[in-house]
Structure formats: C-alpha cells, structure tokens
Design a protein that fits this description.
- This protein has 27 helices and 29 strands.
- Helix content is about 35%, strand content about 20%.
- Helix 15 (about 440-460) packs parallel to helix 17 (about 515-530).
- Ligand NA7 binds near residues 190 and 382.
C-alpha cells in the first residue's frame, strides 16, 4: 500500500491505535461524516488486549461496566461470561465490535506511525508510517493507550540470559508452556500478580523477584454480579448515566464514613464487605478519607496486611509480601486469584530485592547480592512507560518545529488531557491530565471520544477548522490537576502514576484525580462556554474565549457544594443571636485542630470590663519563653469567640512556635464601633506589659487576626504607633477588612456564592458602624496614616470579596515604606484558609503564615527557640 511521497493520501482524520479508544473514535468520526484512517502496529484490533496475553490477564473492572455503552443494541448482542473477563474474551469482544461496525476497512494493521508533523501553512498534519507511507490529515488523534510502551528492563545484564525471556506486555501469541521449568518472574505489579499463580501451576520451580510488595485483594471471579446485571436490565440508561456521573466510572454510593472517626465495628464491617465484594471500586472507598488522611489509610492497609498474614503460612514470606512503603491506593491496587496462597506452595519462592538486590542477569540465571539462581526462563512483569510513553515515542512535531518530547521534557502539559498548546488539531485520548487510569477506562474513553467528536462537529458547523488550547487555559488545567493530587496521598508514592517507575522520568502526577464526574463537568463547561480556553480558526476568522476552567482548590469546591446541600438560611437574614447560634453549631462539628503544648483561659482587664482570652503554648516550650502573638478572631465584629477560631489558633501556634493569645472583644450590635478596635489595642498593651507572665519574650510581640479580627489587629498597630507604643514586631492580617468601600472588583466577582457575601458584609457593617464612622481609619485602616507601621503579612484569597482591599492595603503599606509580604491564597475563599483539618489545600497557605510569623521575630536567639 506504499504511495509515492509526492501524492500523499488525504483524509480528515488519522487515528493511531485500534484498541478500545481508537475503535470508538473511528466509529464516531465516521458518524459525523469525516474520512478517517487508523493505524495500529499490532496485527489486529485490541490495543492493550492485543499485546498483554500473559496467563491470567484479565480486566480489573467488572464486565457489566468494562464495556462500550454507546449502542444499546451492541449491549444486547454481547454477553460476558465472567465478572472479570479474560484477555482472550476481551479481545474477542473488540473484534466483534470492529466487525459489527465494519471498522476494519479503515484500519491499517501492522503499521506503526513513526512521525507526525504540523504544516502551519496547509493547516494539516503529515503522518508518516514505518512503511514510509505518508498521509495528510486535518486532525491527528492518538488513541495509543496509557500502558502500551513497555518499560525497558533497567537491570544489569538484561540481554545476557541465554534462555527464553518473556515480557508480560508482549506475550507470544501461541502461549508458553513452562511445564517442568525453573522460572523467574521479575515484578509484582498487576501483571505479575495475575500471572504468578498460573505460571506456578506449570513450573517445577518458580522464583518471584519482588522489589515492592503490592496491595491486592481477591477478585472472587465468577459470574458477572447479578445485582449489576439486574439493574442494567431494569434501567440500562439510568445505570449508564450513573456510571458517567460517578467518581470512577462505576455506579456507586459515595460514603461519608471517615476512617478516623468510625467505630472499630464499622471499620471492620465496611472493610470485610469490600474484601468479599472483590472490586477495586469498593476497596478504594471503604472510608471517604482513606486517600486523604494517613491515619485512615493505615486502617485499611493494616486490615489488608492482616489478611496477607492470615493467608501466607511462612511468617517471613508473609511479612515480605506486606506493603509498607506506600499508602494503600497510591499505587494501583491489584485484584488476584490465589496470589498470596501461591507462596504456600513448596516450589514457589519469594526473593526480596530490598534485601538482596539483583546484581546482574547472567547467562543462565540471576545473580543477587547474596545468591546465584539458575533458570530455564525469565519473565519480566516490569511495567510500562505509562501515560506519556506512547505519546512521545511517535515523533510528533507541532508549530515552530517543537516536538512533543521537547515540550514535555519537564513533564506533560495538557488542556483537559486532550490537547496541548503548539500542536493544533492534535488530540490525545485518555492523555495525561485526564482521569484515564484512575477510572473505568471504558467510560472515560467514551466520554473523551464523544467530546472530541462533538467538538469537531461544532467546529465544522461554525466554519472553523483548527483548534488549539491557549497557554493560559493549559497552565490553569495543569495547576488544577496538580492541586487535585496535592490534597491526596497520591504524590507520596513512587508509582507509575508519578512517572517514578522509569529512571529519569520527571516526577509529576500524571492522571486527573478529580473524578470522572468532575472531569466530565469540566469538559462540558468548556464546550458550554464557547470552548473556553481554546483558540479556533477558520477561513477568515478566529474565535477565542480565553480563561481557566477550574481555578478553585478542589477541596474548597467540595466544601461549598456540601454547604449548598445543607440549605442553610443566609446569615444576613438572621438576628445576631441566631447567626451566632448557627455559627457555633457548625463549629461544633469541625476537627479540633492540632494538639499544642498547653491551653489556658484567662481574662484581660479591658477598657470597659474584662475580656476573655485563651493562651496556646507550643509543645516543647516549657524550657523557655517564646515570642507572643495577640490574635483576634473573625466574624464581622458580630460573630465569633474564643472557640470559633480555636483550631486556627492551635495551627498558628504549632506552625509559628509562638505563644498565641487569642482575645475576645466586645461585639456589635450590642457595643458598636470603635469598641472592638479599642479592646484590641488594650489587649495588645496588656500582653506587652505582661509578656513575662504569659511566657513571652518582652519586646517580641506581634498581632494577628482573620477578617474583622485582622481589621482590629491592623487598627491596633496604628493606635500603638500613635500612642508611641507598645512596640509591635509584625502584623499578620488574614483576609482583612481593610476598607469600607464595597465597590472594588473582588466584590463584583466574589460577592455571591463563596460564604462571605456582599449582603453579609453589608449586614456586618450595619451592625458595627454608622455610615459616617466607616471612613474613620479605626474602621477602615486603609484610610489611615500608614507611615511607621510594623512589617505586615497580608493574606488575600482569590474568591474573597475582601481580596482587593487586602491587596490595596498591602500596596498602600508598601508605598508608605512598610515591609509587606503579600500571600495569595490561590483558589481559596474568605473562610477556607482557616478551615484547619477540613480544607487540606489551606495547609500550604498556613505554612506560609507560620513562616511569616516566625520572620516577625528575627533575633537569632528566638529563631533558634522556635525552629
Ligand atoms: P506495574 O504495576 O508497573 O508493575 C511492575 C512491577 O515490576 C513492579 O512490581 C515493579 O516494582 C517491578 N519492577 C520494575 N522494574 C524493576 C526492576 N528493575 N527490578 C525489579 N523489579 C522491577 O506494571 P504491570 O504490568 O504489573 O501493571 C500495569 C497496569 O496494568 C496495572 O496497574 C493495571 O492498571 C493494569 P516497583 O513497584 O517499581 O518497585
């Protein structure tokens, strides 16, 4: 089929890969009327399921879910024989699909695509195959799978072995008979764990070389789950809809049971149910917090380890098989059939490479640091260059001769995992930055393909023929992908999700962990907002609505969603007392915040009576005094008390190493402006005068506050300057009320929907100060004289109506010569940074706050004490 290079064939789209994603892409492109040509280096359809023919290879998502759902007729015509289908059956299915829709006629098998080059002038890709064939296309789509490029064996002497060597990922079609042989298996990921029990049935001796033990649960294979089949039977569409809008692409009820707070009985019951069910979707969601909270994760991990110890008879072997170096779920967990039991067989031996690493593969076996082993065959189950391997392996060159490999040298960069800037009309299916390997691939693939097909159809209807993400949209998505991972335990593991299995590969979390549902919503939102973040062109026209589709921290978004479901009355519609009661009720359900050394309550003589205070002393501070921080709680001068900000004060105490004195002040509307500000100043004077008694260092005192508390902290600094003392080392203003002007852009952008609303802020002001007083610097410190004030750290949150006045205060202080550190709480609301133990993404911001507080006390002596 070689064509002369001068007359390359022209099609609308080239698809690389004829696995699950490539086949469906081909089908959909044809459906929208595009001409398509697909290539696959394999001899037939199947992708992953063409190559991974090792004994025991099966899917690990149950077959009612691991299947195409785009055509109800197709579903009627195919019946899976088991809960987890074998590789031959899945391959048969894909062959059946290819034949049913006549897809083969557009697929060239045994043909690798070696390069693809964008021609900016022609606005077309030139695709070259291993046979030297050239083909031109408008759209170039890589459906090359996430786990398709085997990792080359990074083991000394790998080419030296004289006997047969097998890779699970490239297993011989005719199968392998190990009967009577001494076999080595290297690798205990999913492929090793699935194949080892079957290889053990044939081999006379089986030696497994394990570098990292893996978590695995029994698959309990058998017929497909009857309940699932029944649900499908009764309401196929409803079932598929639920799958598409679920977290991992399998319908399931999300749990709100937290591992850390559940009773032992509940923990055990939930774990046993998941163990018996034998499905990844169950075992990864025993507790809502198991991938977020190390303590919760450890409960599940320990229960799995206990199972391993109960199955494996030799205690030493059992211990070696118990994973302890990574949190459960941070490496892909496995499903097995008799894996751990296999180690009870007399001819099976486990070698712990952590204790005796492989020195070299030899001509007749393997030499470790301690022993020499002779083998008849070696099996490598050593994994893949996952997610990016296949994409960079084919030489893809975009605009300005930039190759994908060069662009991704420091890690992949995509918009929605679908496209990458500089490579117009180049799509990836299940690319890095999409849920892919963290989800039911069948569901994710259909979503991707449908989105791409929908996009191309929309473009055609609009007379557009090129599409490419903007740099802004792409970097925003990359950030969101990393933000989602950062609140989980995922980045802690040396997993292939992190690229950690391939020496030299950049360490970046590759898939999107925000959920199949969250991802689908993001893709729909992008399309719904006129393809936000994409630049599209057509003859004589260009269209681009630039922007970032997800700017909020994922856990902040979750909190807002949760609050929305609670149907709470808007605070500004309540009386002050009812609002206080509501705030106290919500506060009662929060995690308590970290342990500190000591907490004591007391009273300060205020200008009009006693003011309660609570003192937090850092752990390990009994040996000496610490700097003092006088803290004022938030709540719009109306709400809040010592309890409301207790977790935050603990956190600040732990992070700063300072003694925190949290002071309550008189509240409005009972006592209005300027009482709160005067109380704050009085508290600072008192703390300074009593520093020694409080365990502080005289002269080392800062103020801090959140929201209205930051307002009065800032005012106290101005009053102290005017009064000639006390000396204040620094002011920590977290989302401060700095002004009474409610017309700044952040009020327009964030005035509704982020807890602190414009209406609530107005309610606070009305309770606190008469309109005439609101311009007084003691109410609006931005309007005061800012010369000679203490160094400041101001935290401004993106989704806070007060953001711009915080920034304005920082700029004004800077202009007045005051040293200022402005900390942007990216993706946060007015309240989320303070939600200790709830909003995980707030922790890095609070770490910066702690650091800034320490920097307020620069003497070497105190630095040593607090570090
Ligand atoms: P995996 O899960 O990447 O497993 C590969 C295994 O091979 C794993 O245990 C590795 O240990 C081990 N390995 C890799 N390189 C070496 C060397 N040099 N020496 C010793 N051991 C090594 O790949 P699979 O094919 O099993 O599964 C891939 C996915 O397919 C799976 O997650 C499912 O989604 C389906 P390590 O953990 O790196 O220490």
């Amino acid at each position: 089929m070689n064509k002369p290079a001068s007359v390359p064939e022209q099609v609308d789209a080239v698809v690389v890969g004829a696995g699950f994603s490539g086949l469906y892409m081909l089908y959909r492109l044809r459906q929208i009327g595009l001409s398509v040509k697909a290539f696959d280096s394999a001899g037939d359809v199947g992708g992953t399921w063409y190559w991974n023919r090792y004994p025991g290879a099966r899917c690990d998502i149950a077959t009612p879910d691991y299947t195409y759902s785009f055509d109800p007729e197709l579903e009627k015509e195919w019946t899976w024989s088991e809960k987890y289908a074998t590789q031959p059956e899945i391959l048969d299915y894909l062959r059946f699909v290819a034949d049913r829709y006549g897809l083969r006629s557009d697929i060239e098998f045994s043909t690798a695509v070696t390069s693809a080059r964008w021609d900016e002038h022609e606005k077309r890709w030139t695709v070259t195959t291993g046979h030297g064939e050239e083909i031109r296309c408008r759209y170039y789509i890589m459906a090359t799978g996430c786990l398709s490029v085997p990792k080359s064996p990074d083991i000394e002497g790998a080419g030296r072995f004289a006997g047969p060597v097998y890779f699970t990922s490239r297993w011989p079609h005719e199968g392998v008979d190990f009967t009577g042989q001494r076999v080595a298996v290297i690798g205990t990921g999913s492929s090793g764990i699935q194949s080892i029990p079957l290889i053990a049935r044939q081999a006379s001796q089986l030696t497994v070389f394990q570098r990292t033990p893996n978590f695995s649960i029994p698959a309990h294979n058998g017929p497909a789950p009857a309940d699932r089949l029944q649900q499908l039977d009764e309401d196929r569409d409803g079932y598929r809809h639920d799958a598409r809008w679920s977290r991992i692409g399998v319908p399931s009820e999300p749990t709100d049971v937290l591992g850390v707070t559940a009773s032992e009985a509940v923990r055990r019951e939930r774990f046993e149910a998941a163990w018996q069910q034998g499905e990844l979707v169950g075992i990864v969601s025993v507790f809502a917090d198991q991938l977020l909270n190390p303590a919760s994760n450890d409960i599940v991990a320990e229960m799995i380890r206990a199972k391993i110890r109960s199955i494996v008879k030799d205690p030493g072997t059992a211990e070696t098989l118990c994973p302890k170096d990574h949190y459960f779920g941070t490496k892909r967990p496995c499903l097995d059939t008799g894996y751990f039991d296999t180690y009870n067989l007399p001819h099976v031996r486990l070698v712990d490479l952590r204790k005796q690493p492989i020195v070299s593969i030899t001509e007749d076996g393997i030499e470790t640091a301690d022993e020499s082993f002779g083998f008849d065959a070696i099996v490598y189950a050593t994994g893949f260059d996952a997610m990016t391997g296949a994409l960079v392996a084919a030489d893809v060159t975009g605009r300005d001769s930039l190759s994908l490999k060069e662009k991704w040298a420091a890690g992949p960069s995509t918009y929605l995992g679908l496209m990458t800037a500089g490579f117009p009309n180049f799509f990836m299916l299940t690319g890095p930055g999409s849920p892919s390997v963290l989800s039911n691939m069948a569901v994710s693939i259909e979503q991707h393909v449908d989105w791409v097909a929908g996009c191309l159809k929309d473009m055609r209807e609009e007379g557009l023929d090129t599409i490419e993400p903007t740099e802004l949209a792409e970097s925003g998505w990359n950030q969101h992908v990393q933000d989602c991972a950062a609140i989980t335990l995922m980045p802690t593991a040396n997993s292939w999700y992190m690229g950690a299995n391939v020496p030299g590969k950049p360490r970046v979390f590759l898939p999107y962990i925000g959920g199949v549902d969250g991802y689908r919503q993001a893709c729909d939102d992008v399309a719904g907002q006129g393809y936000l973040g994409f630049r599209m062109t057509g003859p004589g026209r260009e269209q681009c609505r630039d922007g970032v589709i997800r700017r909020m921290q994922p856990d902040v978004a979750m909190v807002l969603e949760l609050i929305a479901t609670m149907d709470l009355p808007p605070m500004e519609t309540l009386s002050a007392d009812d609002a206080r009661a509501l705030m106290a009720a919500t506060a009662a359900t929060r995690p308590p915040g970290p342990e500190v050394g000591e907490v004591t309550d007391g009273v300060i003589p205020g200008p009009a009576g006693d003011l309660p205070y609570r003192l937090y002393r850092p752990a390990g501070s009994s040996e000496g005094p610490r700097p003092l921080v006088v803290y004022f709680h938030g709540g719009g001068w109306v709400l809040g008390n010592l309890d409301s900000d207790d977790p935050l004060c603990r956190d600040l105490c732990e992070r700063s190493g300072a003694v925190i004195v949290s002071v309550n002040y008189r509240h409005a509307p009972e006592v209005r402006f300027p009482a709160a500000a005067l109380d704050a100043f009085a508290a600072v004077q008192w703390a300074d005068a009593n520093a020694i008694e409080l365990g502080g260092i005289p002269g080392q005192l800062s103020v801090a506050g959140w929201s209205a508390g930051a307002n009065i902290a800032a005012v106290a600094c101005q009053l102290a300057r005017d009064a000639g003392g006390p000396h204040i080392s620094g002011q920590m203003l977290i989302c401060p009320v700095a002004d009474s002007d409610m017309t700044r852009p952040s009020y327009q952008e964030n005035g509704d929907g982020y807890i602190l609303t414009t209406a609530l802020m107005r309610w606070f002001w009305d309770h606190y100060a008469d309109p005439a007083d609101r311009r007084d610097p003691r109410a609006a410190p931005l309007r005061g004289d800012l010369q000679g004030l203490p160094p400041a750290c101001i935290v401004a949150a993106d989704f806070d109506p007060l953001r711009d006045e915080g920034v304005a205060y920082a700029r004004a202080l800077e202009d007045a010569g005051v040293p200022v550190r402005l900390t942007r709480a990216r993706g946060h609301t007015h309240t989320s940074v303070t939600m200790v133990g709830v909003v995980i993404s707030g922790a890095p911001v609070r770490a910066e706050i702690g650091e800034a507080l320490r920097d307020f006390f620069p003497s070497v002596e105190s630095r040593e004490r607090v570090s």
